[in-house]
Amino acid sequence: MDYAAIFLIQVAYAIASLALISVGLAVIYGMMRVINFAHGEFLMLGGYAVILPVQAGVNIWIAMLVIAPVTVGAFGVVVERLVIRPLYGRVIDTVLATWGLSLLLIGLASAVLGYYQEGSKPPLGSVQIGAYRESGYTFFVIAVTLAIMAALYLGLKRTRFGLLARGTMQNPAMAAGLGVDTGRIYAATFGLGAALSGLAGGILAPISGVVPVIGATYIAKAFITVISGGATVLAGTASAAAMLGAVNQVVTFLATPVVGEVALLAAAIILLRLLPAGITGRLFRGGV
Amino acid sequence: MKISRRQALASATAAVAASAFPRFAFAQGAAIKLGTIADTSGPLQPFGTQKLQCIQLAVEEINAAGGLLGRKIELVTYDAQSSDQLYAQFAQQIALRDRVNVVHAGLQSSSREVIRPILRRANALYFYNTPYEGGVCDRNAFLTGTTPGQLLANLLPFMIKKFGKKIYVLAADYNFGQLSEKWTRKIAKENGAEVIASEFFPLDVNQFGPTIGKIQAAKPDFIVNTFVGPGHAAFYGQWAGTGMKKQIPIASQTFGEAGEHLRMPQELSEGIFVCYNYFEELNKPANAAFLERFRKKFGTNYGYVSDLGMSEYMGVRIWAEAVKKANAIEREPVIKALEAGLSVDGPGGTMKADPKTHHFVFDMHLAECKSRKFEILQSFDQVPPTNPDGVCDLLKNPDTNQQFEPKL
């Protein structure tokens, strides 16, 4: 019974962490049709934005929930202005440009910070469940992911910025004609996506550590989740993460982490064969 | 004397050739070339840097003492950037273009198996100076790291006696982890214990939640891990974060070799058991003198010298000793000198060549991590390398070229 509880908590955690690493990419891809190949490195920067301030004596929660998203969000705005803006509508070119950015960031981090990773223990201690123990941080990751998704839903659905952003993505010419400064909306949306990536990288840093190449661990899963989710940012990410995360973790429990990864990929292939436009190409249409 | 003729030609054609082939212009013909390929960047940087530094120190010391056979040693260095593909490329270059006299290279067992056949074909004498899963039997190769017969065969009986007979194995998913797990099963069985479960992780796995759940369900008496690299290091934090640290003890085949215990909170490393042929903490005059020379060369901020680095230092030392004994630099006399059972004393004690297997006999030390230091609990003098049933005998069968695996 208590083992079943641990099992379910771990499945929920896998779903939450998949949604967490994907949501920043989903905002940038889903809303702007920009394929950000440097997404993994945005997560890596978020991780360093936690680890380095904490080493300098900053409180870990402030580093994680404030410094990481603000720094990476600001970096995202700069990247949008310098790299992405001249390439809107040119998908292949943005792939190349962001891939170059990804290599540059990995190279810089390798040269400046190196691979002497600091070990850390996730905060919040542990929880006893029957005869078993589970890290308190696992529950935190699940809760904070739910909070991010809820805030994003309200932000897109209920605020003026959300309305303008969704309008701009649907029909930029019409939005501009109605007096919306579409350039600023693009910059803000890209910044939001980057900030969410930074936040995700920061939240995962105390569990998984940070090294310059850590982005490679996340990027494939994030892309698969976003593509499987389809065009709708929130409903797509949530439904794809729920399905793929559950498949991955259940199989990991029954077999090994390697087979778990294979099962995730197999599930994504079958899904895209049946629903070529992703889950939200068929279901949850018209959501956000 | 092909090389010197080429060099004569190069100097005759003077500046043009010299600028086209800067390497020839640099070499004076007298220097002995020692080639090394190390991972000094990429995820394996903390391992590779330490290994290269130890080679540099050993070469510098030999040169300061007058070199070898009156010639200086010149170090030819490549950074494989933690990539086995680059190992293949650089092994070709080092053997065929640089024509070095000896190669000391390789960290992961996968990289060793990439370059070992290349160097064998090129008749380039090869030293693999890293603790590994044992069993390589190749006349062209000398393996100066410890094997499971030295490491696990002393660590496991200690753990079994102290904690119990049920073992859970967590290992890296490549030849090092796979074969180490087989050795663990074999040695456990010989000591009346049992491996109740084994899990293998690709090097980029850094989430261990399901595994930690499964370990709790299996209730082993202790864990044996063969973790490699920064991804796997995340296990220690997650394990302690779940509150399991005090419940089930850990013995590791790799912990501390990149100085991990110095970079994680004390709570995570406390009470992990290891068994190596060298620790910085060894209380010996020769070790204190070595560490002083090391700090003088690389500063006090160098990290940690483990058995990984020491194997490189000793590998170069024993090769140099063999060159002196043979009074020659060529491959054949150097192999013969080592096969005569050559031995050298070093900071960690005496190492002696085992002629049949091209492995070495060491003093082993069992230690527990306490307050970010390894406290030596027990020492084992002059432990021979793994060679089950004497399957490897390079004196009798010099053409053998394979890696023997444990029979279960």
Structural account:
The complex is a heterodimer of chains A (288) and B (408). With 288 residues, chain A is mainly α. Chain A has one domain. Chain A has helices at 2-32, 39-55, 60-84, 91-112, 136-158, 160-170, 172-177, 182-208, 215-229, 233-254, 257-274, 279-282; strands at residues 126-129, 132-135. In chain A, strand 1 (126-129) and strand 2 form a beta hairpin. In chain A, helix 2 (39-55) crosses helix 9 and helix 9 (215-229) runs parallel beside helix 11 (257-274). Chain A is globular. Chain B is α/β, with parallel strands linked by helices and 408 residues long. The N and C termini of chain B lie far apart (50 Å). The model of chain B is unreliable at 8-28 (pLDDT under 50). The chains are: A mainly alpha (288), B alpha/beta (408). At the A-B interface, helix 1, strand 2, helix 5, helix 8 and helix 10 of A face strand 8, helix 9, helix 10 and helix 12 of B.
Give a brief outline of the structure.
The complex is a heterodimer of chains A (288) and B (408). Chain A has 288 residues and is mostly helical. Chain A has helices at residues 2-32, 39-55, 60-84, 91-112, 136-158, 160-170, 172-177, 182-208, 215-229, 233-254, 257-274, 279-282, and strands at residues 126-129, 132-135.
